[in-house]
Amino acid sequence: xxxxxxNENGKVILFLNGRLDTNxxxxxxxxxxxxxxxxxxxxxxxxxxxxISSAGLRTLLTGQKTAESKGASMTLTGVLEEIKxxxxxxxxxxxxxxx
Length: 99
Fold this sequence. Notes:
Elements: E1 2-8, E2 11-20, H1 25-35, E3 41-52, H2 54-69, E4 73-77, H3 81-90, H4 92-95, E5 97-98
Parallel strand pairs: 2-3, 3-4, 4-5
Antiparallel strand pairs: 1-2
Helix pairs in contact: 1-2
């Protein structure tokens, strides 16, 4: 997985490309958590994310908890249907903001 980062109008956008799994979840955590020190609004662009494992879900949960503790927001955009289905099955669609 690759992660590209963009700062835009006080918002940090992280573009994820590939698979978010046990091997790559630490990459996302290392990019995501420090981003809350840069901005109150974090967007994760999932339009090129093809797969997510339980390790990836845990990382998103950590991100959501960090956002709440800092009074910030974390939004997922461009989520593919296959990944939306995983969010629905796991109840993450009730926890995360998905647009």
